[in-house]
């Protein structure tokens, strides 16, 4: 049985949303990259192959069918109101984090203190906010891109600066999975641009690794947060020694 063109186009959108390349998919379904490219370029694959790809993407056929009929582009950024709703309800923010990282309901209930009714209510609220689409079996399909970014100086960024940043740095970075590099120096404008490009590359690689590991069981994954930042800055303790700039 042949698969419709709409379903194949929906598969492409799912691949992009998870930042998964044809090479990544080929490795998961044990085909060559060329064979995968050929399938998608010709828009020709069997139902059995479709199911195999859906398993690799952790996407159900009903979910894929809904995506095919909708054709909605994934959001690269949330609205101010959506971010404010998440900031105002930590449990809702946690539910989004788990959904984006493809946790199933059983794993969420096993690791966190939600009842089935509470978990369902959180997913329903995320659905009404337009951040996820609630699918059968309490599966949440994220309507955001895998690598979406928080708004610059938006509710989430302000919340992180004012509330979460202290918590992030409260404990020492001395564990096996920890890393903290405190670097400071004087660079040219070109040097600063180069460092920024490298930080953006690290962010893209982090997104790609998230997509690669998304299908692993919850107990085989560790929650990791990166803070990547740079700005022209002089330590406050140096300020008393600085001469005023001449006008």
Automatic annotation (TrEMBL):
Keywords: Coiled coil, DNA-binding
SMART domains: HTH_XRE
Keyword Transit peptide: no
Chain ranges of the HTH cro/C1-type domain: 11-64
UniProt KW Coiled coil keyword: yes
GO molecular function per UniProt: DNA binding
A Pfam family of this chain: HTH_26
Protein name: DNA-binding transcriptional regulator, XRE family
The organism's taxonomic lineage, starting at the top: Bacteria, Pseudomonadati, Pseudomonadota, Gammaproteobacteria, Lysobacterales
């Amino acid at each position: 049985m042949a698969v419709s063109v709409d379903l194949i186009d929906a598969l492409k959108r799912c691949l992009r949303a998870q930042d998964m390349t044809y090479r990544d998919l080929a490795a998961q379904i044990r085909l060559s990259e060329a064979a995968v490219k050929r399938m998608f370029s010709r828009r020709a694959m069997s139902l059995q192959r479709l199911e195999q790809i859906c398993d690799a993407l952790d996407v159900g056929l009903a979910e894929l069918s809904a995506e095919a009929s909708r054709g909605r582009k994934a959001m690269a950024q949330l609205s101010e109101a959506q971010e404010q709703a998440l900031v105002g309800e930590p449990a809702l923010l946690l539910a989004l984090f788990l959904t984006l990282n493809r946790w199933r309901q059983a794993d969420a209930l096993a690791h966190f203190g939600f009842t089935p009714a509470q978990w369902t209510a959180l997913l329903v609220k995320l659905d009404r906010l337009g951040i996820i689409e609630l699918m059968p079996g309490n599966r949440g399909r994220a309507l955001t891109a895998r690598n979406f970014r928080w708004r610059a100086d938006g509710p989430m960024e302000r919340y992180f600066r004012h509330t979460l940043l202290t918590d992030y740095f409260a404990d020492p970075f001395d564990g096996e999975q920890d890393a903290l590099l405190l670097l400071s120096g004087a660079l040219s404008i070109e040097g600063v641009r180069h460092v920024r490009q490298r930080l953006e590359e690290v962010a893209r690689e982090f997104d790609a690794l998230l997509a690669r590991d998304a299908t692993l069981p919850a107990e085989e994954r560790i929650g990791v947060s990166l803070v990547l930042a740079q700005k022209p800055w002089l330590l406050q303790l140096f300020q008393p020694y600085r001469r005023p700039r001449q006008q």
